[in-house]
Design brief:
This protein is of the alpha/beta class. The chain contains 11 helices and 9 strands. The strands form 2 sheets. Strands 3-2-1-4-5-6-8 form a 7-stranded parallel sheet, with helices on both faces. Strands 7-9 form a two-stranded parallel ribbon.
């Protein structure tokens, strides 16, 4: 295992929730040459990191930011559209990193990305993984399972109506805490040398019914689970005012769970971070208020 605490490191997406957590972990672990990439570096105030301008739509900014960097973490962008924007952005970043002489890339992907995946942005991750593998750089691909924090997309509505609508059936999702995935990412950036793909997960895979039971116990709520098919769920969500892209994401995630694409439980978080990941119950003990809207 290598020690890259004194190696020039750069983390993109520094203003985002995951990026900030990764940078905090790197600082806590003694990284001495740490750079925080953002489209608005002047707005960053991150102890122990130097803000740099990184704009995935500006090739010159990528060239300048990656110069002299040996290890780079690319956090997937938020350009979720049907025009291939995120694929283009990621490919540009990978190409710029290779030209700049970056030796190792850490990338945040998703579980089992495939062209036929029901979550609409899976092809973006698949294309990025392929570009990284073809680049000649060393890599650590982190296939992050669903965050506990993503429950905030559906739980507030479920609390308001007393019902969690789901098309997941008995499918399971191996949710994990964003902070645990960030710790694993920091560990990968600091120690990984061989190219590898890791599946990051929480310590258990749960059905929607099991998740709702844990949420009810934490909040003192009485959310009921209401099974639906994909079409009915999508129509109900959009009819209730949920934006179509979010509704598509929720339906796609339920289908992915139902098809067994998100239920893999691994020890990879512990292996990379050095600590056991949190259970949903433990996470709820300190974060339940995040789900109340």
């Amino acid at each position: 295992m290598s020690d890259h605490r004194n190696t020039p490191l750069l983390v993109t997406g520094a203003s985002g929730a995951l990026g900030r957590l990764v940078l905090a972990e790197l600082t806590a672990r003694g990284a001495t040459d740490l750079r925080a990439g953002s489209r608005k570096p002047e707005a960053l105030d991150i102890t122990g990191a130097t803000p740099v301008h990184v704009d995935f739509d500006d090739e010159a900014s990528l060239e300048a930011a990656f110069a002299g960097v040996e290890r780079l973490m690319i956090i997937s962008t938020d350009a979720l559209d049907d025009k291939g924007t995120r694929q283009r952005q990621h490919r540009a970043a990978v190409a710029a990193a290779a030209r700049a002489g970056v030796r190792h890339v850490v990338y945040t992907s998703m579980p089992a990305p495939a062209a036929d995946h029901p979550i609409f942005f899976a092809p973006d991750h698949l294309a990025t993984e392929e570009a990284i593998k073809a680049s000649g750089m060393g890599y650590t691909i982190l296939r992050n399972n669903w965050y506990f924090e993503n429950l905030a997309l559906s739980v507030p509505g479920a609390l308001a109506h007393g019902a969690m609508l789901t098309a997941a059936g008995e499918g399971r999702i191996a949710h994990g805490a964003r902070a645990d995935y960030a710790a694993a990412a920091a560990g990968a950036l600091l120690t990984e040398s061989e190219s590898a793909v890791y599946d990051l997960s929480g310590p258990e895979a749960q059905t929607v019914a099991e998740q709702v039971a844990a949420i009810n116990a934490a909040l003192g709520s009485a959310i009921a689970v209401v099974p639906m098919d994909d079409a009915a769920l999508g129509e109900t969500l959009t009819g209730a005012g949920v934006p179509a892209p979010l509704a598509a994401l929720l339906v796609g995630a339920d289908r992915a769970a139902r098809e067994g694409r998100m239920d893999s439980v691994t020890d990879h978080v512990a292996r990379l971070s050095g600590r056991a990941p949190q259970t949903l119950a433990a996470w709820l003990a300190t974060n339940a208020q995040m789900l109340t809207g």
